[in-house]
Write a structure and sequence with these properties.
The protein is an all-beta fold. The chain has no helices and 5 strands.
Length: about 60
């Protein structure tokens, strides 16, 4: 479902994260606002693909 370099966000909200490793139902992610890129282990069923809120198209 998810692959390395996807951007995800917790289903309950939170920061944008980039997937760095996928192992079955476990993902290792790094917050994009973290300059050290610490890895966070999350379950795949606890996140969704990241999307911006609202209309960001060209007027």
């Amino acid at each position: 479902m998810f692959k390395v370099d996807d951007f995800v966000q917790s289903k309950t909200g939170g920061p944008k994260m980039q997937v760095t490793r996928v192992e079955g139902e476990l993902l290792w992610c790094a917050r994009i606002d973290d300059p050290i890129k610490r890895k966070i282990e999350v379950r795949a069923d606890s996140v969704n693909l990241y999307h911006e809120e609202g209309d960001f198209g060209v007027c």
